Amino acid sequence: MKTLNFLILALTLSALACKNDKKSAEISTNAPSEIPKTLKITLNAKSNTEVSGNAVFSEEDGIVTLTAVVSGLNPGGTHAIHLHEKADCSSDDGTSAGGHWNPTAEPHGKWGDKAGYHKGDIGNFIADENGNGSITFATNQWCIGCEDDNKNIIGKSVIVHAGEDDFTSQPTGAAGARVSCAGIIEY
C-alpha cells in the first residue's frame, strides 16, 4: 500500500511539474517580441559655427521617433534638418556626410508629398530668441539596425543646416551650410 501511495504521489507531482512548465512556456511565448531600441548621438558644430546638441532615435512597434535639441542657432531663424548618406562628420563643413539619404531615388521634397521626397527629408524647425530649437519627427519608414537598406538609418548622419529647406530646389532644398553633424552609429 505504501508503494502504491508513493507511486500515486510521484505521478501527481510529475503531472503538476509538467503543467507548470507548460504555463511557463505559454507566458514566455506571449512576451513582447520587439524590445524598444534607443540611440542617442551628439551633434557637433560645423562650418565655423557653435551649433551643437543631441538627437535621440527610439524605435517601438515599427515606429522610429527622432527628437533633436539644438543650440547656437540663428535666433528666431528657421533651420532644415536632414538625414545624410554617410555617418562621416570628419570634414569641417560636414560635406563628408554626403548628400541627402535617398535610397529610393526620389526627388527632394516635403515629407509625405505625392511628388516625392527623400527618406532623409525631415523638414524645418524654428530657433527661439536664444538660438535654441527642437524638433520631434516619427515615421514607420525608418528602422534602427534592421535588414532593409531602404529603412535602416544606421550608418547615416543627422545634418542641421544654416537655413530653411524650400522643399523644391533639387537636390537639397537650398538649405544652406551644414552647421551641425552627427553620425548615426551603434555603440
Q: What can you tell me about this protein's structure?
A:
With 187 residues, this protein is an alpha+beta fold. It folds into 2 domains: 1-31; 37-183, Superoxide dismutase, copper/zinc binding domain (Immunoglobulin-like), CATH 2.60.40.200. 15% of the residues lie in helices and 31% in strands. It has one helix at residues 2-29; strands at 37-45, 52-60, 63-71, 78-84, 121-126, 133-139, 157-161, 178-183. The protein has an 8-stranded antiparallel sheet with strand order 5-4-7-8-1-2-3-6, with no helix packed on it. β1 (37-45) and β2 form a beta hairpin. The N and C termini lie far apart (66 Å).
Gap between N and C termini, in Å? Answer: 66 Å
Oligomer: single chain
Taking the sheet with the most strands, its summary is: 8 strands, antiparallel
Give the tally of structural domains: 2
Beta-sheet strand percentage? 25-35%
pLDDT under 50 segments (min length 5)?
2-33
Order of helices and strands: HEEEEEEEE
Given the helix and strand composition, which structural class is it?
alpha+beta
Query: Tell me, what is the CATH class of the largest domain?
Result: Mainly Beta
Q: What's the overall average pLDDT, rounded?
A: 85
Overall geometry:
globular
Q: What radius of gyration results from the CA coordinates?
A: 25 Å
Q: How would you concisely characterize the structure shown here?
A:
Helices cover 15% and strands 31% of the residues.
